[in-house]
């Protein structure tokens, strides 16, 4: 892989990580409940998608052409680095700085789960069983946050494949 592709992608990943980290810290400081809102993830996803696509487009502008592999690599490295930094910040906050915040959020998630299941008309015994199972899980534990990081990368990769298909431009000399 070209050094400039790695450098560009890592630099953009560091920028993404910084932005996501600042947002995470602000959410923590201003309103913990934002971590439980599904709609908060949409602009964060779009930010990561956009900066990943920007990396691929920028490299294509530098080179004049871009293989599918290069386009996907530029996107993926950016998203992986940025998401990793944000995950580390989340681990630091919820594991070391304020484990009580993680406990509060886990309780909020249980309440939301119960309300959602009741809204769907689930039988009370099914709700109780699901809540008992959910109580055993700490969504903000180190291992759970690392698992979430891996799942995020898989999700982002699907969009990365689409971005790579759109952005790629074959070298006319090799055709």
From TrEMBL:
Ranges annotated as spanning the membrane: 12-32, 38-59, 71-97, 149-167
Top-rank lineage group of the source organism: Bacteria
Pfam families xrefs: DUF4199 (PF13858)
The UniProt record lists the keyword Transmembrane: yes
Keyword terms: Membrane, Transmembrane, Transmembrane helix
Name assigned to this protein: Uncharacterized protein DUF4199
Source species: Xanthomarina spongicola
Lineage: Bacteria, Pseudomonadati, Bacteroidota, Flavobacteriia, Flavobacteriales
């Amino acid at each position: 892989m070209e050094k400039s592709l790695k450098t560009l992608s890592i630099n953009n990943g560091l920028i993404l990580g910084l932005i996501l980290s600042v947002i995470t810290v602000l959410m923590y400081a201003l309103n913990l409940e934002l971590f439980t809102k599904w709609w908060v993830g949409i602009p964060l996803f779009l930010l990561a998608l956009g900066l990943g696509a920007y990396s691929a487009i920028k490299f294509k502008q530098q080179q004049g052409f871009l293989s599918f592999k290069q386009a996907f690599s530029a996107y993926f490295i950016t998203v992986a680095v940025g998401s990793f930094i944000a995950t580390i910040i989340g681990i630091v906050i919820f594991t070391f700085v304020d484990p009580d915040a993680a406990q509060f959020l886990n309780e909020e998630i249980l309440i939301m789960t119960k309300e959602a299941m009741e809204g769907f008309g689930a039988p009370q015994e099914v709700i109780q069983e699901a809540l008992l199972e959910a109580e055993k899980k700490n969504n903000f534990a180190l291992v759970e946050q690392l698992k979430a990081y891996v799942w995020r990368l898989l999700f982002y990769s699907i969009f990365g494949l689409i971005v790579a298909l759109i952005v790629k431009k074959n070298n006319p000399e090799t055709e």
